[in-house]
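Record 1 of the preview.
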Amino acid sequence: YLRAIEQNVDFFTDKIVLDVGCGTGILSMFAAKIGKAKKVYAIECSSIAIQCQQIVIDNDLSDVIQVFHGKMEDITLPTDYVDIIISEW
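->
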């Protein structure tokens, strides 16, 4: 996943990214740090979302990554669109 983002930075730069089933947020952080995404919405249904939020804070990425705890179909994003959807599903 990291290599794919590294080799396609132009596709991520200044884009809005949705990470479905983000887990601990590793893909979200790759998109934010390496891909230089403008905003990343990280959605996780399980309680790992709580740890994900702390990991995002610990990595100084809370200005780019917004973590949501819940089912994708129950979440209303604060945007009308996303440019890229990523997932390890």
